[in-house]
Amino acid sequence: MRLQGVDVAVIGAGPAGMAAAIRAKEAGAQRVLLVERQEELGGLLHQCIHNGFGLLYFGEDLTGPEYAKRFIDRVYDLGVETLLETTVLEISPERGIRVINKGGLQSFRPKAVVLAMGCRERTRDQLGIPGGRPAGIFTAGTAQRLVNVEGLLPGRRVVILGSGDVGMIMARRLTLEGARVEAVVEILPYVGGLIRNEVQCLHDFDIPLLLEHTVTEVHGERHLEGVTVAKVDPHRRPIPGTEIQIECDTLLLSVGLIPENELSRRAGVELDPLTGGPTVDQWRETTVPGVFAGGNVLHVHDLVDNCSWEAELAAEGAVRFAKGERTEGREICLRPGRNVRYVVPQRIRGEGPVTLFLRVREMEEGMRVRVGDLWQKRFRVVKPSEQIKVELSPKDLRRLPDGVAEIRVECEVAG
Predict the structure, then answer these.
(1) Residue 404: which pLDDT band, with cuts at 50, 70 and 90?
(2) Rounded to an integer, what distance in angstroms lies between the CA atom of residue 224 and that of residue 220?
(3) Which CATH number do you get for residue 282?
(4) How confident is the model at residue 330, as a pLDDT?
(5) Is pTM beyond 0.85 here?
(6) Torsion over CA of 74, 80, 85 and 91, rounded to 10 degrees?
């Protein structure tokens, strides 16, 4: 494939990458190239055989493969060029891209780049759980692939550490396949995933949920034989004397996701330590001109629909850049304030519409989330596991006084 003359290159073909490539083509880019290291489009959607996808984007309740198929068909219908089984080795600050595949090493320089590499799971090494190195310890996503794609059951007696969405979904999935889930163990006083998954995956199947607990040790030499679980104090430290042992042959880890940004770092993109992803403006342009980012590579989303929507914003910005159009105007920084963990984008320019995503640090009831004097909304409860989406119109932004350089995004007690 001739790689010169590409208008927009999209790195990663999951729900964000496919949506970005489609939107770039629809927005007028002549040549859009979608680069994917796997042998097919869709990312991890193929192993997510449960429903709950597309409720917002398509207005339908779809499984992961069904959601992927909608985008895959559109990719090919629009004539987006695809480069599968291709690994991106490097992206330079000048947008030079080096890739390798069966055809060898190739280099090209598109007019604009959209980063859509997604995220990866935290592993046991990052948690530092004491004990040996027995077989039987998996991330929840790895177990999901084993069961749903490979047709393999990782174990018969399972403990799941962390109540993220994939962990809770796998608790239900393993139960349906005949395994016994001994417990889902969560260090926080509330689940780390969506409430609907807590109800449908745990409560409906009578799966024990141990809140304010963590795994303090694994047991076994060649294969996992059990784990020690202890209650934690308000500082999330194990409380001596509260330990219990649970016999199991499998431990699944559902303890958070990390945006994949090794390529972003090498490109010179500034990363936000609060999100683990790039710092961007409202068009999702990074600090490297012409390089945009969207989806889980930017910050981890609750819903796949929002991954796709955000990537479309990045694609629109990339097409504008490729056509030589730039957003002018003063730059205003968005700063997380009281009980706000992060806000994306981190800066805005001009008067275009702005879509914000934010997360709170701690669960609170009876709160108001406020974006400066531009937007506010009351919430019965706010939780770190539930992302908040805010839409600001050009009219909202025109209300900003001259000279404003910063907007605080805060969660405050509703009066």
Answers:
(1) confident
(2) 5
(3) 3.50.50.60
(4) 77
(5) yes
(6) -130
